[in-house]
Design a protein that fits this description.
By secondary structure, this protein is mainly alpha-helical. It is 76% helix and 0% strand. Helix 5 runs antiparallel to helix 6 and helix 12 packs antiparallel against helix 13. The radius of gyration is 20 Å and the shape is globular.
Length: 317
């Protein structure tokens, strides 16, 4: 398999997953921002959205103040933001076009159709007073596009290196997104004077669960009210939760091992993925909080980025 093809599949999956995460982040932030003032006086939700999407520096290089409408536009349609939904979908289609013969017809239709629909949203300005409805329709369209593409991958691709590189890209991106949204919750959203477990804390954790489609899963697993340590447990250490860190790494390890078996050798990528997986398997939510959630997430993000670099060096250049 050509490294160029593997690289395009890897990044195609990452861009599609990133667009879905951004859509969910904007939706969750809108819910937090709509809370009554009695529950929320911080105004830090949109700064948190920028932090979790990794776009805070790029945004403030363009705009001095964190204004909701500008943040929404920056995260959705702004061509100057490399990670806006618009640019993610465009980058995904560019990668897909370069390896058209490596994709199934269903995968290409999902990506190309999404790009064309996104251009229609971009071109058709909303009527006055319909901006919010248009945004809601756009975010729902992005989430459905991600489901459509992911379903096409699962249902139509051969289980060969093309499939494995696609899944590795998706799960590295998903793990990064889940870790970032957890970290931002503890360092941006909850103000210093607000107690953990208070009403604002409850609404913020619920919004995070909604951002990763995990509210129902949380109640199925724990059958309890929203508690910060249980939300963290679900999104870090529960293998049955598709967006948890340990679930992402279970998929990464299996995909990298399949590639190693196909090519007859292992390398740094396999070693690093197994190391991170072992750390997650041996962790408990008590030890995570004792050592500091921020410190745990920071270490994980560093390890995840290191793994991404190792995969690029080992297979994609």
């Amino acid at each position: 398999m050509l490294s160029r093809t593997a690289d395009s599949l890897f990044w195609l999956a990452r861009y599609m997953e990133r667009s879905d995460f951004l859509a969910r982040t904007v939706e969750a932030t809108q819910r937090l921002a709509a809370l009554p003032q009695a529950y929320n006086e911080t105004g830090s939700e949109w700064e948190g959205a920028l932090e979790s999407s990794g776009a805070v520096d790029a945004y403030h290089a363009k705009y001095p103040e964190t204004e909701p409408d500008r943040v929404v536009d920056f995260l959705t349609f702004d061509p100057d933001n490399p990670s806006s939904i618009r640019n993610c979908l465009e980058a995904a289609r560019t990668n897909a076009r370069s390896i058209r013969t490596a994709l199934t017809a269903e995968m290409w239709d999902a990506i190309n159709g999404a790009y064309l629909e996104m251009k229609r949203f971009e071109r058709d300005a909303p009527a006055k007073g319909e901006e919010r409805e248009r945004l809601s329709r756009f975010l729902e369209f992005v989430k459905q596009t991600s489901l459509h593409f992911d379903g096409a991958v699962i249902r139509t691709m051969l289980r060969d290196p093309s499939f494995w590189f696609c899944r590795i890209g998706l799960h590295i991106e998903r793990a990064d997104n889940t870790a970032r949204i957890l970290d931002v919750k503890y360092h941006v959203l909850l103000p210093e004077h607000e107690k953990v477990g208070g009403s604002l804390d409850y609404f913020q954790w619920t919004a995070i669960l909604r951002a990763v489609s995990a509210v129902t899963a949380y109640h199925w697993v724990y059958r309890a009210n929203i508690k910060p340590w249980l939300v963290a447990d679900l999104l870090i250490l529960r293998p049955e939760m598709p967006r948890s860190l340990i679930s992402c790494y279970d998929n990464i390890v299996r995909s990298l091992d399949s590639i190693a078996q196909a090519y007859g050798r292992q390398g740094a990528a396999q070693r690093l993925s197994h190391k991170t997986m072992a750390q997650l398997e041996n962790a408990s939510i008590e030890t995570v909080f004792q050592g500091g959630l921020h410190e745990f997430i920071t270490t994980f993000l560093d390890d995840n980025n290191q793994l991404g670099s190792a995969i690029v060096e080992q297979y994609l250049v």
